[in-house]
Structure of tRNA N6-adenosine threonylcarbamoyltransferase:
Amino acid sequence: MNILGIETSCDETGVAVYAIGVGLRAHAVYSQIELHAQYGGVVPELASRDHVRKLLPLIRQTLDEAGLGTGDIDGVAYTAGPGLVGALLVGAGVARSLAWALDVPAIGVHHMEGHLLAPLMEDATTQPPFVALLVSGGHTQLVAVEAIGRYRLLGETLDDAAGEAFDKTAKMMDLPYPGGPQLAALAEQGRPGIYRFSRPMTDRPGLDFSFSGLKTQVLLTWRDSDKSAQTRADIARAFEDAVVDTLAIKCERALEAAGCDTLVVAGGVGANRRLRARLQAMAEKRGGRVSFPRPVFCTDNGAMIAFAGALRLAAGQHGDAAVRVTPRWDMATLDAVG
């Protein structure tokens, strides 16, 4: 059963083919970073237009790499939300049209469920129940996963997501777009302990996050500094250490609250080298384990959508022929699988 996955929620066009019982056959991602760099952020209308331009060629490329034709597609999965409404509609329109033309089922996938399940795509040993940390530019959430499709929110950010804080902090320090990866790379050159920022909301009970105050601390420190290259790196290191420590502290609390030993980490910030090492050490100290997707599957991609869609299509779930998207979508409203 070959499932074509399409991801167009923001500024990456992702396509993949996942075969149930076989695994990932092929995947490709086209990034719009250069298109949006001159604006310092994603321009929704430009993102939508570029999806229109790239999606069909990318589908042809992915099918060729998988050694398949359109007649070999048994189902189509696409990101139906959350995300930019125009970008979502491009993927949904193509997916529904293709499914109708081929007379195969199609299903809209929740973008964050795609991220949450990405580590399971190549690691069959990780199965619910577990705690998931979804950490990206748009989300920072801790979720208790009782089964696929049964999610209970444990905590979330009250303001900036962790990835958003990385991007905004980088912009304050005049780093090029996209800022988050640039800041993480710069932090590798920083000296630990030269600066220290607070670990927000770790001095009180609860599993919610807040990163806006941390961002302000960095702004004030950067404003009053000598702005040398080493100082910039030292501040970047202190900021990254604060975010990583905060995430790790909250993850350990979440595991204890949920009574779980397994942590799953997904989303773009999940590719951060220091975060992966810190969470691995925390899990091992507790006698548990942590599962990450490969870095290429941390950021938005079609493979996670194909995999999540395949699980639901195999369970008999699918939608009608209407093109619908949900720019704001609570993951707790999803149906359980099985």
User: Anything to note?
Assistant: The chain has two domains: 2-116+297-333, 127-292. The longest strand covers residues 23-31.
